[in-house]
């Protein structure tokens, strides 16, 4: 069961200290089945902070964000859109992998995080924002977008366009752009079309910094 141990980040902007503290977070029940906490990675001086949904199977095992199939697609899209991933800070709204087992009990199948889990993990995301202080927050998918912009935010209505953050996080999110999660591109019936639209969104996001 979730408990209060490690559920609140320490009062620091040191990302290494935050990462170490997050490794012991029991703020929701996801830590019980996940291999480890998957904290964000990247440069503390990043102008762009990228937020995904949650780690997947590959990320859970590696302890790093966006290293699986969706991460490889994201890296390719970043390159085409003119982003250097080494200059970014990449993280997830939820830091533990939520999954169910297949019928044979072997394959781990991704499960969308619930609102309770997103809210439980939100202090860690806010701590990362305080540490990095980006000029732009790029939100990948509805879960990521709603984690900062509120549960009423609709990705389909505001995809690829700059949006204002709510007052409670406005000082941490000076500008935000939301688009689909790269895993949605992988699942799309016309992957080429979905990928082109995704890259276009990334390019539009980049222009907000110029």
Automatic annotation (TrEMBL):
Tell me the domain of life.
Answer: Bacteria
Q: Which UniProt keywords apply?
A: 4Fe-4S, DNA damage, DNA repair, Hydrolase, Iron, Iron-sulfur, Metal-binding
Swiss-Prot/TrEMBL GO biological process terms: DNA repair
Q: Which GO terms describe its molecular function?
A: 4 iron, 4 sulfur cluster binding; deaminated base DNA N-glycosylase activity; metal ion binding
Gene3D superfamilies hit by this protein? Uracil-DNA glycosylase-like domain
Q: Where is the Uracil-DNA glycosylase-like domain?
A: 39-203
Fetch the SUPFAM superfamilies from UniProt. Answer: Uracil-DNA glycosylase-like
Q: Which family does it belong to?
A: Belongs to the uracil-DNA glycosylase (UDG) superfamily. Type 4 (UDGa) family.
Name the PANTHER family on file: TYPE-4 URACIL-DNA GLYCOSYLASE, TYPE-5 URACIL-DNA GLYCOSYLASE
Q: Quote the protein name from its UniProt record.
A: Type-4 uracil-DNA glycosylase
